[in-house]
Amino acid sequence: MTSTTTTPQSATTAVALSGVTKVYGRGANAVLALDGVSLDVAPGEFVCLVGASGCGKSTLLNLVAGLDRVSGGQITLAGDANPGLMFQEPALFPWLTVDANVEVPLKLRRLPRAQRRERVAELLRTVHLADFGRKRPHELSGGMRQRVALARTLALDTPVLLMDEPFGALDAMTRDILHDELERIWSERKLSVLFVTHNVREAARLADRIILLSSRPGRIIYSTEVNIPRPRRIDSPEVAAIAAEVTERLRTEVGRHGQ
Ligand SMILES: Nc1ncnc2c1ncn2[C@@H]1O[C@H](COP(=O)(O)OP(=O)(O)OP(=O)(O)O)[C@@H](O)[C@H]1O
Prior knowledge:
The protein folds into 2 domains: 15-22 and 31-83 and 158-258, Rossmann fold (3-Layer(aba) Sandwich); 92-157, no CATH class. The protein contains 7 helices and 10 strands. Helix 2 crosses helix 3 (113-126). Helix content is 36%, strand content 23%. The protein has 259 residues and is an alpha/beta fold. Adenosine-5'-triphosphate (ATP) binds next to strand 3 and helix 1. This is ABC transporter ATP-binding protein. Residues 15-240 form the ABC transporter domain. Pfam families: ABC_tran. GO terms for molecular function: ATP binding; ATP hydrolysis activity.
């Protein structure tokens, strides 16, 4: 077994996966979830990962996040920062205000109180929630809660964002607005993003590059650059054309496995 998440500096790669394999369980019950996945994410690149249900997308993200260990191969992150993680559920602390939720990573980083307040205000402005700091999560809409989760993730000051279906539970209009917001923040902060989605249109709307994983065990079977100028519209013909191409590949793959 080789290790995960070492930290050499590299100007050209923010996240590097080399021959990553993941096996859950042992013996007769062993499940090969990922098989020899190699992928480089460049600094400032937005990469979307798509694939059929159960192909190992979340597994891959969890491995990059350091939440689990690879069974083989290696994952390397440039610099020392831990990547920021966002899921479909915002996972906010319900008993804390919005301000206090965003403040959590700043407290963990032991920033002095005055600096924390300044940073929280700045982050809430960034996600357009400047007036909502004193609310509690249950007082907000689903889209607003995801904005708080994004602000909290940005508070880590990490250059790498890992997102697992972050907008999967939102209605189309809210998702559309959050795509614009995420694109703006990604571009302003020059983030490297690894974004998992079932939604190929979302992938074509957001990505510099789309990676398609095979059905289990997950292997990279297709990759395409998305060279559509930004900002993009999810309903544009260019986005639709890329989405159609990826959908066709996905359909072939799912058909091959009789799912
Ligand atoms: N802890 C675990 N123990 C055993 N098998 C697991 C475990 N976690 C995931 N798996 C299996 O590994 C495979 C990949 O799971 P994973 O959740 O990464 O897929 P996914 O592509 O994210 O799926 P979905 O799109 O449905 O969310 C699945 O077959 C899953 O059942």
